[in-house]
Amino acid sequence: MTSDQFNISRRGLLALAGVGLATTVFPRQLFAQSGGVLIIAAGQDIPNFDPHTATGYSASFFMRNVYDPLVRISGNPPVPAPGIAESWTVSPDGTEFTFVLNKAAKFHSGNAVTADDVVYSFARALKLAKGNSWMIRDIVTAEGVTAVDAGTVKFKLTAPFAPFLQVLPWIFIVEKAVVEANLGSDSGETYLMTNTAGSGPFSVARFEVGTLYQLARAPEAWQAGGGNLEGVIWQIVRETATQRLMIQRGEAHIATDLTSEDMDALKDASGVVSVIEPEYRTFSIKMNTQHGPCADINLRKAISYATNYQAILDAAGYADLMKGPLPMGILGFDANLAAYGTDMAKAKEFMAKSAKPEGGFKLKMYHVSGLEQQRRWALIMLDSLKQLNIDLEIVPMNWPDMVTACKSPETFPDLFPVYQTANYGDPDNIAYAAYHSSRNGAWQNAVYKNPEVDALIEAGRKEIDQAKRVAIYGEFQKKVVEDAPDVFGVLERRKLAMRDTVKDYHFTPVASNAIEAWGLSLG
């Protein structure tokens, strides 16, 4: 694509061109010239551009800005809002949803978004069975999504699903004609690795893997409520301390990965706004339950009891300790769950039952390169495991490489730290993504599988009686804790920093580090 395809001022283009020369920090002069270009400093690369395969907060940022879903989420607490669909109706039994599309909706090609595109997108997502398709698996079928006419789509669900409108923001609509023209032998996956077929308010102007992703306001942008941004830059900045300095010096507008110490350091910084808000954001350290030493449940329990949880909490700062797999406050959370705590007597008891009771072996732990918080937790695990005579090899990696390592038990490390932010405020989000076996091979749950846990998760997502759902998720939590697939860590508050020149920002407690730029302005 050429720059003249985008509605960017000469001033903005000069700024965007200059950014390509930067590898970590923008000079002040460049920032001063950036006009309406929002610069976001983030530590995670974007794995690919396919809205039906890519996951992670960086991918969510990309999809939210380049693609559109039927329904968006806004507010705190989050509520469904129109996206491509301007309105919808629901049958009394909760199994049929009918969506009327906005007649103004257009793809970047200039073509109208039609019901056929919506039907095609859901069928493709379900066929590929990757990315966010887990959210609708066993609830939506390809046959159950039909075009009533060019502007109306009907969904016939296999069963009632309470959070259906809450999950729709994560199933993005592609232009059928573009994907079909580039289908190849893999349903267009190769093409959409580095190309797009969206209708979002921004288009891809340029990208340099590992450095930056540059979006420009699409000339076809049809969405209401847009701010004055001419473009957005997702700048890869691995070190959180560097992100903080960029915010302090006015070299970035928003930083997404700051530590508690970073936030404290910014409290009195001129021109900086701090956002520290609760959301359903879990941090756990997943263990390889299928391959290697941690396939031994007794070793997993020994590690769970040997972990220094207070040190993990102290390193987290603005956070609370987890009790089990679900975050506090969410529907069904069991405050009385018998959870793991630091107890060396129990740790040694389970170690004695393990296959290698004397220890003397080494485990491997990956963490995101440059993410200081994860590095600290890895060092805490190193010290904790020494008490069991277990050594720990700590390996920093780029996020796309970590995602690749999740594809099989043989490539998955012994310990793998995971942040998971609920994309919708329902226990199904965390439970299905992080513990259902259909997610094996994905970073949320690379290897853990238990048929009894699967059955509970499936029952919970289809049940609409709230009391029954609470009971189901109570059993789910007990069974997962008994399996000890994770070291249950902390519930962190979301920490963002931004310049006070960013206008009209409103916090929403779902995927809040995947910034939605449409609606923001610089002033």
TrEMBL record:
<feature type="domain" description="Solute-binding protein family 5">
    <location>
        <begin position="80"/>
        <end position="441"/>
    </location>
</feature>
<dbReference type="GO" id="GO:0043190">
    <property type="term" value="C:ATP-binding cassette (ABC) transporter complex"/>
</dbReference>
<comment type="similarity">
    <text>Belongs to the bacterial solute-binding protein 5 family.</text>
</comment>
<protein>
    <submittedName>
        <fullName>ABC transporter substrate-binding protein</fullName>
    </submittedName>
</protein>
<dbReference type="InterPro" id="IPR000914">
    <property type="entry name" value="SBP_5_dom"/>
</dbReference>
<dbReference type="GO" id="GO:0015833">
    <property type="term" value="P:peptide transport"/>
</dbReference>
<dbReference type="InterPro" id="IPR039424">
    <property type="entry name" value="SBP_5"/>
</dbReference>
<dbReference type="GO" id="GO:1904680">
    <property type="term" value="F:peptide transmembrane transporter activity"/>
</dbReference>
<dbReference type="Pfam" id="PF00496">
    <property type="entry name" value="SBP_bac_5"/>
</dbReference>
<dbReference type="InterPro" id="IPR006311">
    <property type="entry name" value="TAT_signal"/>
</dbReference>
<dbReference type="InterPro" id="IPR030678">
    <property type="entry name" value="Peptide/Ni-bd"/>
</dbReference>
<dbReference type="GO" id="GO:0030288">
    <property type="term" value="C:outer membrane-bounded periplasmic space"/>
</dbReference>
